[in-house]
Amino acid sequence: MHSSGFLRRPIAASVLMLATTTALTSFVPTRARAETAQAQPKYSFNIPAGSLSSALVSFSAQSRIQVTSQAPTLAGHTTTGLRGQFTSSEALARILQGSGLSYQTLGEHAFQIVPAPKAANITLGPVRVGGSFNAHAAAIGPGNGYVATYTDAGTKTDTPLWEIPSSVYVITKQEIQDQQAQNIMEVLRYMPGVYAEKTGTANNGNAGTSGGGFMQRGFQSTQYVDGILSNSRSAGETAFVERVEALNGPASVMYGQTGPGGIIATRLKQPTDTPIRNVSVGFGNWGRYEATFDVSDKITKSGNVKYRIAGIGDTQGTQTDYVNYKRVGILPSIKWDIDNKTSLTLVGSYMYTPDSGMYGTGYPLVGTLIRGKEGYLPRSRFLGEPTNQIQSTKEARFEYQFAHKFNKYLEFQQTFMYEDSKAYYNTITGGTLSTNGSTYSRTANKAWQPSKTIGLDSKIISHISTGPVSHTIVVGMDFRQVKVEQNLYYDLSGKSINIWSPQYGWTPNYSWSGPDNITNQDMFQTLNQKGIYFQDQMKFHKLTVTLGGRQDWYGYDATVYAQSHIGATNVARHVIDVEKEPASAFTWRAGFTYNFDFGLTPYFSYATSFMPQVGYFDVNGKLFKPKQGDQFEAGLKYLIPHSNIFLTAAAYHIKEAHYAITDTDNPDYQVDAGTVVSKGVELSAHANLTKDLHLTASYSFNDTRVSRSDTVEKKRDIYGTVIGTVSEEGKYISGLPRNMVNMFIEYNPPARILHGFGVNFGVRYIGMTYADNANSFKAPAYTIFDVGAHYDFSALTPTLKGLKAQLAISNLANKRYVTSCSSSSGGGACYYGQGQRIYGNLSYSW
What we know:
- It is found in: Cell outer membrane.
- Pfam families: Plug, STN, TonB_dep_Rec_b-barrel.
- The protein is 7% helix and 52% strand.
- It is mainly beta and 846 residues long.
- It has a 22-stranded antiparallel beta barrel.
- Helix 2 runs antiparallel to helix 4.
- The model is unreliable at 1-39, 118-133 and 206-211 (pLDDT under 50).
């Protein structure tokens, strides 16, 4: 566990009604409230019947007035709802009618819910939570149990999930902790519509700018951290993450260059109003040892300046021999509430990963997907060279988040981010398996790859009304620059290895005077994007209409130099490609939601996307055209009244042009497959069934295939020999499951049964995938079980309060499975999924 254990404590209020420790003050007299109400403006409210905490959340969102409460005050209360135009005082009085509760004013634009006068002498103890309530805190915070109801990722405004006409799914901090997920790849295992383990342990758990193996609705993901595109390989460190969201479907209208499948959005930890003090030590199989800390507190006496600092140190082996993982990192942050309308947050991080824990070469199709001459290769089999297994990164990041509210109608927000990453690789990769079923060819490569990313997003948010219609308008502009330099060497005179009885000892020779065949490629890439965007969320009673548009200008410069040494012959260094492509694109989105009184919200939307194919070249060195996509989506969202259960159902149809796939004749290059269509259905449930029982579950169906293409695909046998050709048209995209089902349950038994204990259980089903673009082979479906348990030592004695032990086992049955295979001239590259992983930790919060 990477953060304090208090997040597990039962909280009766919804996530958005976070408790404060403000003492109960005197009540505002009824007459005074009435006089105040006469001077207040009227707002248009549409609040369904249901739990009082959810109603107050809607009240705050629709009036833009902050509401706070002691959490026990709201427990078990409901409301009949509210619809029409009222002042804030009138609306609040009607919502609280019959509840036995009242309110008091806290400044000009804030209320606090308190017990009615007859209960005024009751003293409520402090409730430990991660910050005081406001809509923005709820939109970027850790969530409540397994349920989050607000997001700012889907619209760049603090919006309830049921008012967004597209699919946005949230994995909360508690769920991350319960599963002991070690990176974003593991977090996404239970996310609807997302296949995060396509390349198995070859992925280090991040999406990055190129997708990193994450697939959403059949297309590669991009990853955003705090709203800015991230190129970091360490952005998936869960010790630093507060929540993870998947925006499924086109997101270009707000974010610019993204694929039509969607984006992965993470939020880093920030200072909290309530102090956090947590340390942990971890252990596990493969020699894992880990230590973390997470501390947050105020700096000034008034608390207007706060800090938070999180850190991690980790060392372990992996399921593959000679492949290790080591990391040390720190995340400091400071938040300054300059006044009650202005705030500035500074966040920095540094991460050093001398060993990434990745084994990216894959295995031949024979011995993994198909039984070989000696059965199946073990997951521990290493086909590289122990002395040439280096994958190291150093990454630094800085960002600031500034916000200022001019008045209740207008606010300004700006986020700036700078990333500096340096990566070094020295590895051996696999090639072709001989028809003898044993001899595997190899090549060596090493690379130095520094990159720098700058991102700036500035926006003005306005809350106005035109008659009965309330508007939340966003007008913004952003800028992004990504510079990547790559110095890459290949030793093509690789020594083959016996996959069944490997003998190591080959040392690559990159010297230009040596006997090996060497190629060198230096690439300098710069991607610039600037965009302006507009969005209007129009609310009329139960109907919310969202319209948005964006204009982008982008340019991509790539200069590639190459030289080679074949035998005793040196080829002079020369420019093989220079690309300069300034261009522009317009994307837009339109959709609506309609919220019924009983909590059901149907929605429909249409959205477009574009994505320059940076670094994608055909065999002639020609840069691919940008991907262009569009999506129709319809669905239902249902917040069950009088509960904390959120259900969704979505159906979508995506079409994208210029979909790039691997050129099987030249595996280092791509070919334009033409137009690809993705159709599917997603069902999800996020529920806090009781204070001790939490659940998340989903079903995803996705059908992604080439709908129009003039490309011909070669059919090959299991060793890569061409045996015929087939048209690409109508074929499924390889490596994508059609069906995925998952469920994860956390349960804390009653004290009279197992005092202090908690257990959890998860199941993941991934359907079959095609192993090549010709659809000649299939990787079979697999089912994985995860279990866990935890114990709170305060159940033994109060002196051990804050001490907690946790154990999590993923792939309980230690099942051997192949996550996917990719086609190539050498009979395919298949990726093993993670074997049985046993992780535990001991944490202490005070």
